[in-house]
Amino acid sequence: MTSTDQQPFLSVKDLKVHFSTEDGTVKAVDGLSFDVAKGKTLGIVGESGSGKSVTNLTILGLHDPAHTTIEGEILLDGENLLTSSPRELERLRGNKMSMIFQDALASLSPYHTVGRQIGETYRKHTGASKKESRDRAIEMLRRVGIPQPDMRVDDYPHQFSGGMRQRAMIAMALVCDPELLIADEPTTALDVTVQAQIMDLLKDLQQEFGTAIIFITHDLGVIADIADDVLVMYGGRCVERGTKREVLRSPQHPYTLGLLSSMPSLEGPVDVPLSPIPGSPPSLLNPPSGCRFHPRCAFADKVSGGLCSTAQPALDVVDGRGSACHLTLDQRDEFFADFAVSRHN
Ligand SMILES: Nc1ncnc2c1ncn2[C@@H]1O[C@H](COP(=O)(O)OP(=O)(O)OP(=O)(O)O)[C@@H](O)[C@H]1O
Ligand code: SF4
Ligand SMILES: [Mg+2]
Fold first, then answer.
1. Best exposed site among 206, 280, 283, 290 by fewest CB in 10 Å?
2. Is 292 in the pocket of ligand 2 (CB under 6 A)?
3. ABC transporter domain spans which residues (predicted)?
């Protein structure tokens, strides 16, 4: 993407993930493309049900193959994950790529100590001895800021606070120095202070190891803090992408504009009432015709010929910057101007 001059470490091309259900086909991800370079963070933002988690679980190979149809290409360091065997994916998970989930308690086993769980992940991928794995677990706990790690290594997850459990999960995700880390709403359940500490921790680790990070969130404030590039998802598709500055400062898509209008200013208090996007996210079973956002879009009537409800807008991307909307860029400049004035003055 635009902010990188390096080769992408992860490259997702025209990814489609469809689930067969009793009610029909759920097109959870429907033609998604993006890149992430080493040492960079891609923020993926979108409302609930837009396909963020499905995209990332598919990258990791953690989908249920029985009812899932996947098309496209996922290249990790040049290797196509969609044609890799389950065994190969298992090797890559933990070693080359790993994930931090939202709910640490659900992701850590209650029956084993935190240290054992971190150590076993290390042992499995490196063949290290039990002693080496325990030492590594202590080192990782120290690195993620757990006090007295040599004692806490023998605690069970329920003996940790919520913030500590989240740190322990980060330690587990990073124990094999993965080159790609996917963080799916890792801080949503935490209070603001712990949230900030965990974001700082991820940034430090990224600087140290050059990790590529995908950070999924509903929160544009978090994106403003951590991302280099941003991908905005709506109804299983990318509606806008660009650098953080481009997307947050000069949104090109009415949906991104809506997201920004429904959150407090990123630069301190502004006397603008917040206006949440009316309506609800689209069904992925029977998505709206044309532009999937049209039933909720305040600008749909500005496009002539009723195009918004009949023709799907293409995502035009130049140098990593693009959006999928029938409005001309001049129209957007004009219509979005009020927004820009109220937020930046
Ligand atoms: N195994 C499955 N079978 C059928 N539908 C599924 C399956 N997994 C996910 N979906 C559907 O795919 C869509 C995208 O889900 P996904 O979990 O990716 O959303 P999300 O963007 O991560 O939302 P949230 O912000 O709430 O986590 C949803 O409509 C969801 O119901
Ligand atoms: S294509 Fe039409 S409905 Fe979709 S975002 Fe643009 S103006 Fe709105
Ligand atoms: Mg999700």
1. 280
2. no
3. 12-260
Whether the CA torsion 99, 102, 107, 108 is positive or negative: it is: positive
Determine the pLDDT at residue 193.
79
Mutate to test the pocket of ligand 1, among 18, 29, 52 (most ligand atoms within 8 A of CB): 52
124: number of Cβ within 10 Å: 15
Query: How many angstroms separate the CA atoms of 282 and 266, rounded?
Result: 27
324 lines ligand 2 (CB under 6 A): no
The answer to whether the CB of 118 falls within 8 A of the CB of 172 is yes
With the most atoms of ligand 2 within 8 angstroms of its CB, the residue from 297, 312, 329, 332 to mutate is: 297
Let me know if residue 63 belongs to a domain: no
Shortest-distance atom of ligand 1 to CA 283: 29
Residue 255 CA, closest ligand 2 atom number: 5
Tokens at residue 329, please? 């860029």
- Asked if the structure places residue 118 within a domain, the reply is yes
pLDDT reported for residue 266: 58
Q: pLDDT tens, 140-178?
A: 999 888 999 999 999 999 999 888 998 899 899 989 889
Q: Mind listing the pLDDT tens digit for each residue in 82-107?
A: 999 999 998 898 789 999 887 777 78
pTM: 0.91
Predicted pLDDT at 300:
95
Distance CA 44, CA 25 (A): 24
H or E element in which residue 189 lies: none
**Domain edge (last residue) among 174, 207, 232:** 174
Residue 254: CB within 6 Å of ligand 2? yes
Tell me how far apart the alpha carbons of residues 317 and 34 are, in angstroms, rounded to a whole number.
Answer: 10
Domain containing 333 equals 251-344
